[in-house]
Structure formats: structure tokens, C-alpha cells
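Form 12-C: Joint structure prediction
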Amino acid sequence: MPLYGTLDITRSPAGLPTLANLDTEAWALPKAETMQLLIEVPRVTTDRLLPKAMHPALPSYVGLAVTKYSDSPVGPFNLAMLRLGSRAGAHPRGFLLGAVASTEAAARELRARWGFPVESGEVKFLRRHDRVMGTVKKDGRIILDCALVDPQPVSGTDVQYINWVTAANAPLDGKTQPMLIQVDPKYTFYKAERGKPLIGTFDAAAWKAPDLKLAEPIVGTCCTVDTDLPRIRFVMDPLKPVFQGTRRIRESRAED
Amino acid sequence: MKFGLFFEISIPRPWTAEKERTVYNNCLEQVKLADELGFEHVWAVEHHFLEEYSHCSAPELFLTACAVLTRRIRVGHGIVVCVPEFNHPIKIAERTATLDLLSAGRLEVGTGRSATWTELGGFCANPDTTKKSWDEFVRCLPKMWMQETFSYQGEFWSMPERTILPKPYQKPHPPMWVAVTSPGTEIDAADRGLGSLGLSFAGFGEQEKKIAEYRRRIKSCEPVGAFVNEQVATTNFLFCHEDEKTGIEMGQKLGNTFNYLATQLISTREVYSSPSYQSLGLLPALRRAATGPDAGEQQTEGMAYGDPARIVRAVKKWESLGVDCINFILNANEVIPQDQVMASLRLFAREVMPHFARKPADAAAAE
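Section 2 - Result
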């Protein structure tokens, strides 16, 4: 059978974000600009980062995403995320390892509503003629300096964004407990570009992935999209294989 | 209707030398029996780096062993990856001709381009150009087999004039096919006069549309080879048992395991945005079907498992849609014990194959 991750998130629940409930309303996030850089990483550096319920991607890879949300319920903010390519059962997912939001309000709400492991910091999304750049600073120190070099137009139909999974504490069956939460944004593409990922600085420890080593770049995309953060539909037992431990919280991802 | 075997050579962890050897030997034993039972084809994939799902990275060697062990069954590349980083076209022409000689003219040559980032990335191949390189390769291969000397200047490869040796046993050359997983590839097959080697598990409705379009287009094709190979093959799972319930349960176990392993692969589209890979190939259907290795739920219609009567009904339905050949996957991760795989093959040959026996030419003509 496929390999499983080795991370037991139930051993240190205090380090996880905690949701008051699983009933957050959805956020509409129109005209977001999002840069995603995919990079292969050695498998030995990721085994301990992936929950026991999930399978690693073969080969292992991470996605570094820097997004400019110009309109949201908490105002404009930028968000940088590190996601580990993986499988929840048969489905490709990006397990959220770390995130930085550019405003305190965004960081607070993303932690409380969807359980993102997000802290506040300085996140810049900059577009130049020949590249799109993302820079993240925490405590005055650069922890990510990356770019999509030589962006070339592609069709939005060429781009696939996979859904995310995050680890958090949330109430279920009358008890607040560690669990995995699926976050499945939708995308309507206005513009899509593809280019080469370039990483200047990546401070793995600051992204809560101290052993992670970036290896072969795969590809980068930069897209303008209408997107969202939907209502939570699925949660998963962190210790059981996902195909045995998934619970549907509600039928619809929309406001209902 | 013709029947074949289709090998991915799936090997469960933990991998030991003995386990890999045992699975290969099991496959060879199945091929030997299939030859005796009257199966027409054995196909072997070319996959690289696909852990547990497929350890069949050198199909030409496996197929050579099949050819040596058998007398009648045709041996097929299902498929050769026609991407220069994987296989140089001269080597493809030479290897296939050699295998055709060793098998006394029993070779079928499937072609394709790989669908996973796991493989394309592993060979540092450019996903944007695989369809173009495949097209170039399939146009060159027949000439390399047939012409005394050959030279070529192309986008993906070139060579000065040389004599490519040996030449195939079959004249003018072995039948050629293309793997059809993505929507639209059946049209590529038809336009080039290639056989359609279906590797997806789509249901009847989708397959019927694909076959109809293939049949329509191939009538006006410009074949890349010396002849048109108008044939439609599909892939299926086989587990035949006297007891219908047991047959279905075991067949579903096989199908679920195969699907679950397949969905672990990284499709090119998942990570590499490219107009060349807009489709996820066979993965969406597999993900719908693969709720887990223990799942006994939804699987694509028309699967060849159950008791003989149930399988006869499924095969007749495929036959009515215009399928010429069904190739069966017999195992995945060794979830079916070898003695049961062999018993399933024997029962299928005894109880199902006679329903589809080809009539002698004179009898058919008299009807």
C-alpha cells in the first residue's frame, strides 16, 4: 500500500490553531492575484511533516504561494503559504505547513475560521515586466524571497490548483480535538501566466518545516482569479487513513 | 472479440529481490497459461518510478521472455514512450525489430507519450512537446523498419543515412497502436491509421462515442505506416469465479487496489500547467471509483468480474459497442493469490471465451 506520513498531530494539539466551531461563513475573494511556485523536495525531508492519515506525493513537492487579495471581508491583505503536495486517500491535496498574512486581522480570522497555521508579518507581492516577486518578512527577517521569472501567457484551463488540508483543533461530537480540515477554494480565471520558479531565500525553520530542502523546480504560475474560502465541508481523523476517517460536515460549500 | 492480458507489474511494499522476482515469475506463468488457453495478446506497459503501481520499466525484456515461453500469443508494447529523453527512436526501431524476430512475427507496437510528472520530470522531459515528439516518432518508425537506409532531420531528433538493423519479421512491419487515455487521442489514432489501445476505464456511453468517432475518422486517414490498423482495444479487470458474489468481491478488490495505486501518481496536469496536458487522463474516473482499497462501492460499469454468465453479458455489451479486443488486468499489488488468478483464467477460457469464438471463414461466409 502507498506510504503514509508519520506526523501525529494529536501529540501537540496546543501548537495547532483552534476553531470555535466548524461553521464559518464563506469568504468571497474577487480578483486575487496569486503566484504559485512548485518545487520538488527530497522525500526524507517531508515524511515527518505529513499527518499519518495522508499519503506523500510521489515525488515529494511543495507549493509556495504568494497571493494578493485586494478585496476581502477583512480588507485587502497578502498571504504567503507553504503547502506540501500529498494525497488524502485518492485525491491530491496540499497540506498547509505554514503561512504568513500581511495584516493582523487576516491572520487572526484565517486561524480562527479555517485553522490555517498563519502568523502576521510583511508579505509583498510585486509585479515587474519580466517577473513576479514575492517577499515575506517575519520579525524583520526575510524568510522567503521568490519569483516567477519570464511569465508567459497560458490559458486558465491549463492551470490546476489542488485543494488544501490544514491541521487544527475544532469541536466535533461535543469535544474540541485535533483534526484535519479540507479547504477547497474555487477559481474563475481572468489571466494566467507560466514561468520558471526562482528562490532567493527560503528559511525552512521559519515555515515550520526545519528539515525541508528545496530541490528541483517544477513550474510556476501567476493567475488573476475570482476565488473564495468556502464553508468547511469535510474533516478527517488525523490518525486513520483518510478513506476511513473522513466526516462530511455539510453538503454545500456555499452559504446555505 | 479477441482477449488479451495487460501487465503493469504491480509490486507491493516491502520490496525485496525475491518478491520482485516472484511477481515477475507469476506474470510469466500467467502468460504461458494464457497462450495455452487461446488468449490473443499480452501487453506490457512502459512505466518508470511508479512505486507499487508499476515496476515494468523494461517491457522489451519482459515481452522477450513472454515470446520465448509461448508459441501463439502476440506480444505487445503497451506502450513505448515516444519521448526522446525516454527512448531514442533508433533504439525503438532496433529493439522492436529484434523482438519481432525472436517472437517469429508476433509483435504489436503500442506508442504513447507518458502522462505523469513522476515520469516526465524524472527524465527531465518537457511536457509541452511530448505530443509533437510522439507524432514525429510514429511517422519515422515504419520508415526505419521498411527502408534499407534511413536518414532524418526533425525537430526532436535527427540522423544521417544509415541502415537500421535488424528489420522486423512481419512485412511490411508490425501493427502500430497508440494509447488512448485523454479525450481526443482516439482522433489522433484514427487520423494516423493506428489502432486505438484504450487504457481508460470509461463507461459504455463514453466509450461508444469514442469508438464511433474513431471509426468515422479512420475511413479517411493518412496512415503513418504501410497499412491501416483499424482496431479498438479496451482495458478491463478480470476475475472469473463460479460463485458470482465471490467473483464480484474479488474483482472489486482488484479494481479498487489498482485504482487507489493509480491515483497516487502525479498527473502532469497536477503540477505542470501545459496546454499539452489539459486532461487528467484516466485519473478522474479512477478517483471516482477509488474510494479506497477496501471499498466495495461504485466502480465503472462493464467490468469483467463475477461468474461466467455476468462476464459474458459485460463482454457482449463491449462487443456491441464495436470493441475488437479486451485486455485484462489480472492483479494489482498481488491482492489476488496466484492460484486464484490462474483458476480465473482457466474458468474464463472454458466458460466465457467459447461465446466469442470466431467462426471459421467458410461458415461465416455461408451466413
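Section 3 - Comments
Residues 291-297 of chain B have pLDDT under 50 and may be disordered. Chain B touches chain A at residues 12-13, 49-52, 117-118, 121-122, 259-261, 263-266, 269-275, 278, 286-287, 290-295, 333 (CB under 8 Å).
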